[in-house]
Each structure stands twice: as structure tokens, then as C-alpha cells.
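Hey, can you fold this one?
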Amino acid sequence: MKDIRIYFIPFLLLLLVIVVDKLICIPEIRESGRRTYKAGQNLILGMPTIWEENKTIQKSGKRVVVVTGTSRSESFHQWKEIPVSKSIIQEPVYFETRTAIKASEFLLYYLIIKSMTDSGFKPDVLFLEFSEEMFNENNVYTYKTKWAELMLHEDELLDIYDAMNPQFKRDIIARLLFLGYNYHFNPILAVKNLASGKRVANDDYFIGLSSYMNEKKQFAPDHIGYHVNNFPEKEYQDRIVGYAESRKLYFLNNYRISNPEINFFRKIIDHAEKHNIPMVIWEPQIHPYFQDIRKKITGGDLFNKNIKQYIDPNSKNIRYISLNEGNTNCQTYVDCSHVSPICVPEIADKLLQTAKEIPNYK
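Sure. Predicted structure:
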């Protein structure tokens, strides 16, 4: 009899693990024992508040433009009010820039845009940045870095499953089967918090997310950079040559097209088409020195190639423009990778002019 009891112990332990794991489906239990949310997760949690604010702004008669992208889009955040040419649009325009995040990529953009539609908000137009670095599987900031931060719910895991590579698909299956693994659940912590009525506190330290929830601040006159032909020698070496080498090392190293990033880019396109969201996909301008370096690594034609491959030329919701083809008057740069914030009004005008070509843009 004793041998039989010993024989059943592993099965009883397994049953206990399964029962505890399924209890995590109860929100109160999950919120008592999960891991604290990290930067990317906190960002997603903060989005509904932003969309409610945007609904109010839109109802006041302003056009709302949502800007999603990396630090190259974040320059929009450096203007309290961006002057828009009245010949392009008569109504006042509010640019939502808290959605422009340094070191971000298409998985995060997809989750942000999906949270927007889930909240019932539809912008007058969405600006989506397209930069070639974002498609590098070996970029230091990819879907892999965001995945390490996120704890998505079951419906969200199922939604992104098709975009992931086999390794991450297996991880998603494991997370769906074992919720304790997905939420990094600590049973002892859960018991303590349930007994005391506490819940897991969220980490509010946002690494690299300088736009998030920040008040817009007008750029300082001494931070506008230099004209392309007037960089002081030391500044040129530091901001152009040296910074280009660091960009090459961290963002273009061992360049290889990332299928998951391509898939999330396509999911954004499909989402915009499904929900009739007017969207302008744009490629930011970079310094000619860095452009030559990047072109030698990537081939320099990813924008046109992806646009032609994944966007219906007769789309009623999407148009696109590259500002990296000598088609702007902007000649001032902060560094090799970013134009000066003084160029933002021209950029905004060009993107809004492109938006006017969208049939569903009103």
C-alpha cells in the first residue's frame, strides 16, 4: 500500500501544478502573483488613457494625427504646436506623439495601433515610420527585445502567433498551456498578497521611452544641429562619422531581413485596411554620409520593394512617401541619423499632403 501511495505522489504533484496554473485565469489571483510589468508592457497599459484624450481633442474640432515610429519620428514630440500650412489643411491639427518611441519596432507599433482600435478611437490619419534598420533580425532592438518585456493575455498571444518564427511560436504554445509560465507566477507571493489585500505594483521606470506620457517641450535653439555643409570638424567627427559607426554596429550589424518584423508590418497594413484607418507610411531622411553606409549594407531599396509587395496600389486607406530621395528642403541635421527638429513643419506638411491622396481621408 505504501508503495502505491509513493507511486501516486508525482501525479498528485502534477495535478496540484495544473490546478494552481488554472487558478491564474482568475484576474484577482493573477494580479496578486504575476511578475511586475516592464517598460513595453507599461506603455501598452497607458495607451487607453491616451486614446480617450484623443477622442476629446477630436470632438473639439481638431484633426488628430497619430505618429508612430522610432527616435526619427520622435522629433515631432519636440514641438508644442507644429505649424501646418493652411494651403494643405485649414483645421487645427493635434499630433499625438507619445506613440513615437525610441528604439521601437513593428511588434510594438502593431500592439499600439490595435489598442487604439480596441479603445474605439480612429485618428484622422496615422503616420507609420518605415526605417530599414527596423527590419534587421540582428538589430539590438527587435521583436525579441519587446517579447522579453511583454506579458500578453491569451487572446493577444493567439493574435500574434502567425507572425512569429517557429521558436517563438513554440514559446507562445507553452505560454497558452501554462499560464504560470506566461505570467511568471509566484504562488508564495500570491498567497501573501491575497492575505493582505495587496496587488503587484507596476514598475514605472521607462527605459528609452522618453516620449511616453511626457509633456511636449519646444526644442532649445542650441539643439537644432548644423547645416549639412557647416558642421564644425569635431562635431562632424562625433555626430556624423562616430555616430554612424555606432549605428552600423548596433542596428545594421550582420544585416538579415527579419520575417517576424515583415509579418508585423503586414499585420499593421491589414489592420489599417480592415478598420479603414487612413495611414501614411513614410521613410525618414538621414544624413548622406550614413545613407551611403546603410545602402551598401541593405541595398537601399527596401522601402519601394516592401511597398510594392504588400500594399495594394488601389488601396483606399494607405499612401506612402520616402523623404530620403532628395525631395525636401531640409539640410540641417542633429546627427547622422536624425534631421533637425526645425525640419518637422516641412515633414508634417509633406505627410499631410500625401494623406490628402487617400480616398478615405476626410
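The first strand starts at residue 63 and ends at 68. Let me know if you want another pass with a different chain boundary.
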